[in-house]
Backbone:
């Protein structure tokens, strides 16, 4: 198929790519742009391993055709850390033992990040709902939910100290 030039914002930077418009955002990120943090699980919208934010909304990158991101903002797991400095969510995932094999972790973190962007004080039910599209084959849901609640507290404390 004919390639198309697509302009979008990726983790705060404007980028231009020449790619197949019907190819998935997931393959564009991993294959063409070398951002391997976003994982490919099922490839059909079932597992959430490929979750990224599209205009601040969590989406399954495997289901988004590249043509749909023209002019939009895409945010991937790579944007949450800066060298050795990691996001409070990532710290909490480590501290609460929420990472087992780690395959679901980037998608889980991005779904939780989307939640905490709009709700800094989520209830356990809200956390469950936010990650309901993300599957963990290691069954670490309890620790994952605890980690998200812990991160929310950390972020809240941080904002009160600022
Ligand atoms: S790889 Fe996209 S939802 Fe599973
Ligand atoms: S930690 Fe292994 S799939 Fe979730």
Residues:
């Amino acid at each position: 198929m004919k390639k198309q030039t697509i302009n979008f914002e990726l983790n705060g930077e404007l980028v231009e790519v020449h790619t197949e418009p019907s190819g998935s955002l997931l393959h564009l990120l991993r294959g063409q742009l070398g951002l391997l943090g976003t994982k490919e699980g099922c490839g059909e919208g079932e597992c959430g391993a490929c979750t990224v934010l599209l205009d601040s909304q969590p989406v399954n990158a495997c289901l988004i055709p590249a043509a749909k991101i023209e002019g939009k903002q895409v945010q991937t797991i790579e944007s949450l850390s800066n060298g050795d400095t990691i996001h409070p969510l990532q710290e909490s995932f480590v501290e609460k033992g929420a990472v087992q094999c780690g395959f679901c972790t980037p998608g889980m973190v991005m779904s939780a990040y989307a939640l905490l962007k709009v709700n800094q004080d989520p209830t356990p039910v809200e956390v469950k709902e936010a990650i309901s599209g993300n599957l963990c084959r290691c069954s670490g849901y309890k620790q994952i939910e605890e980690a998200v609640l812990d991160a929310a507290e950390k972020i809240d404390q941080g904002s009160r100290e600022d």
Summary: The chain has a mean pLDDT of 96.
